Amino acid sequence: MNRSESRFDLETAIGTWRHIMKNERAMMAEDLDELEQHVRDQTAWLMAEGMTEEEAFRKAMREMGDQGSVQQAYKDVFWKKVRHRKSISDELRWRFSLMAHHVRLTLRSLSRSKVYSGVTIAGLAIGLAAFLLISLFIRQELSYDRHFADADRLYRVIKQDPGSFFMGNDRFAFTPVPLPDALEAEVPGVEVATQISRVSGLMKVGGGSFVESGLHARSSFFDVFSFDLVAGEAANALLGPDRVVLTSTLARQLFGNADPLGQAITFVSNNREKVLEVTGVVADPSPNTHFSFSYLVSMESDRWWQRGQDEWDNSDRYTYFKAHASADPQILVASIEALGIAKLSPLSWYQANPDRVSRYDIQPVTSIHLHSDVNFEIQATGSYRTTITLGLVAIFILLIACINYMNLATARSATRAREIGIRQVSGARQGQLIQQFLGESFVLTGIAALFAVGLGLMLLPAFKSLVDRELVAAQLLDPGAIAILVVALIVVALVSGSYPSFMLSRLQPAHALGGHRQQRNRSRLRSTLVVLQYAVGIILIIGTLVVERQVGFMATTDTGLSREQTLVVTLLDESLEDQAGTILDQMRAIPEVTHAASSWSMPTNIQPQSSVVQYEGNDDENRIYAYNTAVGYGWTELLNLEMVEGRTFTPDQPGDEWSGLIVNERFKEAAGWDTAVGKTMEYGGRGDHVIGVVSDFHFHSLKREIEPLVLYLAPKQVSYLLVRFAADDVPGTVSRVNAIMDQFSPDYPFEYTFLDDAYNNMYRTEVRFGQIFQGFALLAILIACLGLFALSAFMADQRRNEIGVRKALGASTSNIVRELSSEFLRLIVVALVLAVPVGWILMNRWLEDFAYRIDVDWQVLVPAAVVTLLVAWSTIAWQSIRAAKTNPAEVLRQN
Amino acid sequence: MFSRPLVAATIKPLMLAILADGEAYGYQIIQRVQRLSNGQIELTTGTLYPHLHRMEADGLVESYWKEVSDAPRRKYYQLTATGQEALAAEKQQWLDANAILSALWGSVTVEGQRA
Prior knowledge:
Chain A is an alpha+beta fold.
């Protein structure tokens, strides 16, 4: 009767049925066994009643009920069963099989379209990697000083000195010597207070000598800051003069494996030589501390500290305290402010100048790194704004990657409509489809996350130097980082998976199977997303260009002094100040050297600032805030500064050293003088007169306006030796200068820089900011282009028939390319229109920090637009050209 | 044929009553239901088992796999003490309902009373 090839086989039929049922998660293997046995029993029974095997099996199947309600019935009781058996393993197995099922489905669908999967995973991986790295940096920035025990009770005292501005800011990190003792004695909320100040000097041990920088610290240092002492006792290690605590690294460097405790170190600092006894070794301070040191010298070793015991009007130290747990910060501030007023000295002066009464304030130690706004920080702090900006960039990049996913997934829906339709017809409900698609996005994001970790590890070294922080690979894999990655993964998978899954699961089966194109609405949303992606990318490009141009502007602009071919040698050995003249003479004897001069300040960063009241023509009301520095002979000539009036300092006029002053044009203007030469003014206690006016030049970064300046001649106040040379042989000149320095101070290393480097270094933050911007703008555009590439591929694919017909009707390749690409280019243009004003506003705000700045004009905006359009066009063009070149005959034949 | 809600309401007492006669496996239960109800109660296999599983989870029945030589492995269900109590309670409820309805519809003979 039946032909052999179609003969019914019960075992095959049951096998097929089990295979179908296997995917039903609510049914455990045991349930299937039970059902299978039932089918076998019933089939056997019905056959006994005279049915054929096939009829019996079909009837048994019919009586099973429709698949949907059977699944539902099992599902309804599933959790009850799991709970009843308290069988965690079943539950886990169920969960696992659910996951495995989705993973299997996803991998299957991924391997079917490799371009799609590649692009999606690459986009997500790059986005996640950027996010990971940035989150690492942000966590590092936020972690500063939180490692100290009782970190939330640690405060630093700062001081506001109304009327004594420096760089436009009258808040200072410096406080007077007697402050910590007074805090402990007179402010109830203070548990323990300490004080530190920077110190640097030459350490001589055995035959070796090292220049290291450290801190002077009161013995209460370890009571406030919980550092681990590897050797010695915290209680008395810094008690008494001439004691030093070394970091482990320095101890190893100085003494190797020998026990450092009790060893003697000859220490030359402040022009004095003394012998320090090593009384402790402390673990290296963690890099996320707002001060660093390689050793701590007991405060009592500092003669300036000893002299400053009662000096409340001289602030040059950093004061910290630990508050009682119950102390109210507001009351603390009020009490410390009151303490400050009680200690005003000299009181009579402040009574006469009440507007200049200085005021103490406190800042939590944990907020110093990101939120401090005071002059003379103990070391460079971080920037809250950069941290926040980077955080936003991270989120934007992730968003761009999510959009890629959404766009590609919905674009692909046309191709997947059939699969969805079939699943719907065979009983899958919307919920199950949503689960499937969300599962898909989780699998994709999971794979991308693995790549992202790898990518992050690869990019970490570059990123580290970009943000200038000690970040280690292990931090990428610590629990915090993994938690962040997992959260990002879940958010990304949900964000990018939700839209496609809800949209795809709502397809009408008839439409899905009938091949209807439900494209209109979706392509509008897709367009919006593409516009959004590119708008973000364009803003980042504008940012990059603006920062780069501003940095370039600052690097090349004429600041009024010559920075080229000028060596700046740091005079580390203070004992050499008296011999500066001799050293300079020897340097001038080097044939290549054209000028040599001593200087107290770096000419591109002149400090300090003080106020001048007593100058000729003033009614004692006016006050000029002027920066000043000691300079040596030849200073203005070396820097090529123009004297607009009078003359510069010269050895022919011995009076110059005692009473000669040079001011700049701004000062002259501020003083209201018609001519400056010969005018008298009281400056630093010398009865001085002006001998010349130097043309205005920038002696700070271009962030600041040029301000009044006073130069005085003091050839023996020397921090730097400036050497200008004419030759091309830079290394030769440097080594000759080095030889002279070695001859005078053999113990000290030769420390030098070039003046233009020192100048450019002032913009390090901006340069770095620009590089960061550039890096992430590139990533953002790369991800967006990946998406555009795949999107245009899909579009071209979908329109193959249309293209074929058009070509058959005579359209040229270029016609078609133009049409295919214009659709996308329109979107890019819309993105440009949206992004340009936003970028313009944002970058103008950034530029407000600079007194001298570029304009955000067409020179920035046009290149940004052209670059974006070109990159986007070349992305699309490839696909368009490929599509347009297809032979119409082939396309049409396939249908 | 019984309406769906009625089938749903009777299925639990039915199965409890059948199992009160002794342990049985699923196919046996279905066959007995069909025979007893003369085809009035049509149970789909697919939904019977979840019912049994729910009763098991509620502690009314317990199950075990029985391995007998030269017979296939089958899962047997049997009543627990709780199941016995539940059966008694169900029985009382149905008799009460029956009494009320019989009083209303006096003339109608109910099959159960005749037996």
